[in-house]
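Contributing new records

If you add data, match the layout below exactly. Sequence lines come first and carry their own label; structure lines follow with theirs. Keep one chain per record. Anything else will be rejected by the validation script.
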Amino acid sequence: MSLDVPTALLERAEAGQVDDEEFVDCVRRSLPYAWAVVSEVSARVHAGTADYADHAVPPPSETERGQLLRALASDAIRGGLERHFGVRLAFQNCHRVAAFRLGAVGGTTYQRFVSPLAQIRNQSPELRDC
């Protein structure tokens, strides 16, 4: 799953002239399912008082799963999304996406979510979909 980069944007990138807004817009257009999931969890965490909001519904197809993997495995894409939405993203088991309040990063809830124990617990047969 690659980004669909318009020629004009690629030319600006080669000249070193792409800003975060242009990059994030390219991600939005290229990875619509991943964008929708990250938008949804980010909106929910900002609207509430909890440290995080998550989305644990398996994607409808491997195409959508590929979008999540692409968006969250790339440091550049993940970082762009985090800056755009003002959250820290966490990812487990190839489809569980969480958005954390920036103030919660480093706290107990965040550390628990990103721990090896949490990842192993999400590998149980009833939670695994990968």
